[in-house]
Amino acid sequence: MSKTVEFYFDLGSPATYLAYTQLPKICEQTDSQLVYVPILLGGVFKATGNASPATVPAKGRYMFIDLDRYAKRYGVPLKINPHFPINTLVLMRAVTGMQMRHPERFAAFVDCLFKALWIEGRNLNDPATVGAVLSENGFDPEEILALSAEEDVKSALKDTTEKAVQRGVFGAPSMFVGEQLFFGQDRLDFVIEALS
């Protein structure tokens, strides 16, 4: 495997969820490696002066219609979360902690959270709901909460977010093939071209 896709992601983005459903298949087809880089989208927005398209009402309405079109094209389920936007600070710290401490369970962890947010439409702003989702998927909520509070985990997420901004990331999903940045799940065709 000579090619790599670095996938900068935050669970709170529906477009990132769609990219997440497609990238493993793309990497398999192009004999490439997928590298997950958790970032805090709120931190990226703050550092770059960007904001979610959902903050512009007409654009937000259009965005959700367009994401639904892509979900149908990809053949994947998507439910726009009625609790959107989700504050993902603790969630992304937990994702970072799982990647650092339990890489063997990282994929299952990320998968259950994306599913809860963008298939089941659950309110992951609510700690009790997060706890229920984790328990249902075989994770100990108290262990995960403790992991997300560890100082080196918090520092690691802050570091990856700052480095993402330094590389030119202004939103999620962002993907790098070498030094080429591709933003948005609607740019996956360019990712495929860069890998081919």
UniProtKB/TrEMBL annotation:
User: Mind telling me which Pfam families this protein's record contains?
Assistant: DSBA (PF01323)
The record's section on CDD domains has:
DsbA_HCCA_Iso
> What sequence ranges are listed for the domain DSBA-like thioredoxin?
4-195
| Key word Plastid present | no
**Known catalytic reactions:** RX + glutathione = an S-substituted glutathione + a halide anion + H(+); 2-hydroxychromene-2-carboxylate = (3E)-4-(2-hydroxyphenyl)-2-oxobut-3-enoate
Family the entry assigns: Belongs to the GST superfamily. NadH family.
Can you say what this protein is called? 2-hydroxychromene-2-carboxylate isomerase
Q: Which organism is it from?
A: Pseudomonas umsongensis
Organism classification: Bacteria, Pseudomonadati, Pseudomonadota, Gammaproteobacteria, Pseudomonadales
